[in-house]
Amino acid sequence: MLIKKQDELKELLILKALDARWQLDEKTRNRLFRLESGLEGEADFLAALEKSEWNALFFADLKLKIHFSSVQIDAMAISRKTIHLFEVKNFTGEYYYSNGHLFMKNEVEVKNPLHQVQNIEIAVRQQLKSWGFDYQIIPWVVFVNPEFVLTQSIRTDPIIFPNQIEKKLKELGVHSFVSREDRELAQRFMALHDSKLSFIEIPPYSKAALKKGLTCRSCNQIGMTVKDKTCFCPWCGMRESMYCTLLEASRDFSLLHPGQKLTVAAVSDFCGKKVSKQAIRTALMKEYQLVKNGRASYYV
Ligand SMILES: [Zn+2]
């Protein structure tokens, strides 16, 4: 049973909106790619958990503050007085272990997910102790991408490879049940969850120099054209209702101009004056509330 789904990742939304309208440096582009692929991997694993017959309470993307440090758990399951912690990785390509360190094939070292999940385990154990719950904790690292290859791993390492996910969840599901105490603990975790603990790193950009126009939801390129009430992407051929495109643009405007009021004139300028103000007004009315103040009216 799914108790908590993934949060919308604000950093990812901002970076995507920025990517279409600003030249991101390579480091930030890599970060955007990692965020997107990490989120996809977690979503895939969550789908597998939900599809399984494991009778457990599932959580995705839990953010907790434990003893003054922030702990982020990709996925967690509570069942039969046991907590399973999952560090989910969407790596592709060849990797190898050497003396407890993880390397890509080109010998570049990456953070060892086994260490990451062990640190989470320590924090969760402390939290359980302070709540007075005596639970077993089992940490796992799950590699979800079928194009991932790991050589020289130790057989006893708690790693689940892409082709083992279904089988492993089946094993965990045998004789599984959720007790009243499990539900009580789940409530404690939900009360501790704080979505604001996300780490957000946005590069500096000039608001005035952002490219103006309509962004395609499919390929994230700017320059959609409008005909009647439909937007067309000249880059990937995607077509979408003008109102959907306008609402996305309004959200992107707010993300990239924090603190600035959402007005018809501001969205019109942000969209490169590609659509009529009346169309923008109609779109904003669908999703937002109008705060009337004469010519200075805005939407919230
Ligand atoms: Zn497109």
Any descriptors?
300 residues; alpha/beta; 2 domains; 6-stranded mixed beta sheet; 4-stranded mixed beta sheet; 8 helices; globular; binds zinc ion
Describe this structure in words.
The protein has 300 residues and is of the alpha/beta class. The protein has 2 domains: 196 residues, no CATH class; 93 residues, no CATH class. It contains 8 helices and 15 strands. The strands form 4 sheets. Strands 1-2-3-4-8-10 form a 6-stranded mixed β-sheet, with helices on both faces. The protein has a 4-stranded mixed β-sheet with strand order 7-6-5-9, with no helix packed on it. A hairpin with a 4-residue loop joins strand 6 and strand 7. The radius of gyration is 23 Å and the shape is globular. The chain binds zinc ion. The site of zinc ion has 8 residues, from loops.
